[in-house]
Amino acid sequence: MRTAATSKGEQRRRSIVDAAVELLCEGGIGAIRHRAVAERAGVPLSATTYYFKSIDDLVASAIERCSVHEHERMQDLVDRITVRRRGRHATADLLIGLFVTPDGEVERNMLIARYERLTGSARVEPLRELQHDLSGPYVQMLAEVLRKCRRRSDRTGMVNLTALLNGVIMVGLLDTSVDMRALTRDALVPVLDIYAPPLPDGRTGTGGTAERAGVRSAAPGTE
């Protein structure tokens, strides 16, 4: 009986978090309210306060769930990248595929939800700390892509590239007429050799040689 009760409790808690994730993606952090979550999950209002000590606790669980799913999707793309020297355009296309759109079509709602999570967390210390902890995998995947492209990935370069990517994407989200991929590529290509220069072991990856951005089973990019 205890095991059954525990399992039922875990399922109810999971359904509450699932509902909070849906609301988070649809309307940002402000959409997560006890009553709205309870109605979406189909549970009594008291259940949300029973399983979560505060609304911030519930929001944190939803943010963490969203980030874990996003990390898994992004890591799958990183794992499929082959190791080879790549030029600026090919490297930029891989980074765009990772941080902007995985399948060629920009998912604006996904990007909006990601940056709403970031900006909405800035005012609440526990959420701010959570976002800081969750930012590590993004930087690690960025560094891994650059290493697989035979490029340097030191801390200064990662900070600059992460800031650039975040800034460009947020600007692009404000204008629906903007081609997000083109906007991001135009910003990345001129600075890649500065922030993440090719490793000095053989060809430099510059000089105009066409190179494919070898993601297995994905459309290649060229330099």
What does this structure look like?
The structure is a single chain. With 223 residues, the protein is mainly α. It has helices at residues 2-27, 34-41, 45-51, 55-79, 88-99, 108-121, 125-148, 155-173, 180-195. α1 (2-27) packs across α4, α4 packs parallel to α7 and α5 (88-99) packs across α9 (180-195).
What's the total number of strands? 0
Task: Please state the oligomeric state of the protein chains shown.
Answer: single chain
The biggest sheet, with number of strands, parallel, antiparallel or mixed sense and barrel status, is: none
Unreliable stretches? 202-223
Summarize the structure.
With 223 residues, the chain is mostly helical. Helices cover 68% and strands 0% of the residues.
List keywords for this structure.
single chain; 223 residues; mainly alpha; 9 helices; disordered C terminus
Blueprint (SSEs and pairs):
Elements: H1 2-27, H2 34-41, H3 45-51, H4 55-79, H5 88-99, H6 108-121, H7 125-148, H8 155-173, H9 180-195
Helix pairs in contact: 1-2, 1-4, 1-6, 2-3, 4-7, 5-9, 8-9
